[in-house]
Amino acid sequence: MNGVNASAILSAYDDNPDGKLDLAEFTLVVRDLTEQRAALEPHPPISPRRPQPPLQPPPVDLEQEAAASRLQHEIRAHQAEKHEERAEQQRAAMVVQKNLRGAKGRKKYLDEKDRLVSHYHKLLQKQIQTRFKSYARCFRMIDADNSGSIDPAELKTHLPGMFNLTIPDSVMEDLIKLTDKDGDGEIRFAEFARVF
Ligand SMILES: [Ca+2]
Ligand SMILES: [Ca+2]
Questions:
Q1: How far is it, in rounded angstroms, from Cα 183 to Cα 177?
Q2: Rounded to whole angstroms, how far apart are CA atoms 174 and 167?
């Protein structure tokens, strides 16, 4: 107990001077020392400034807020509209692309078929002219039922067979159309001779 005059404390609190501090006397010592210490404790410094009230958000201008909200809404609506417009344009472009591809594909197919029809047409012409001295003889061979005209079935059946050719159906159909110039469904001799 540095700096504490223990003898002075003893004499001050030893009420029944027996040279000892009993519990009651000691309790008084402790109480007084505690009080003294509390009195000596430095007080917290008093702030020269009053504590600032917490910052309040600026007053809300309801009208301004509503206007901003409306603007936001309009911007979003505009963006959605633009987005939909772009999507629509993309869809249209895709349809155009698809149709173009379809048209190109169709044209390619027709070009290829034309090429084949032309190929078989020339081949048959050459075969007929080489193998038969006259168109009449060839015509009579194809006209299997001797009806005096060739019907499409006769042409389809006999013409390729006579020259051991396999002609695709679609090409054969075109050759028949090409030969049956008047479109009456029968191939007359004049029609046959004109084409082959
Ligand atoms: Ca016939
Ligand atoms: Ca005809």
A1: 7
A2: 11
pLDDT score for 103: 85
- Determine the distance separating the centroid of ligand 2 and the alpha carbon of 149, expressed in angstroms: 8
- As given in the structure block, the two tokens for residue 94 are 């895709």
- What's the 33 CA to ligand 1 centre distance in angstroms? 143
Residue with tokens 């702030």: 47
Architecture of domain 123-195: Orthogonal Bundle (1.10)
Rounded Cα gap, residues 125 and 140, in angstroms: 16
Six-digit token string for 33: 């020392």
pTM given for the model: 0.49
Sorted by where each begins, the domain ranges of the chain are 7-36, 123-195
Q: Pick the ligand that lies closest to the CA of residue 148.
A: 1
Q: How far apart are the first and last CA of the chain?
A: 141
Going by pLDDT thresholds of 50, 70 and 90, the confidence category of residue 108 is confident
Distance CA 192, CA 132 (A): 14
pLDDT at 2: 53
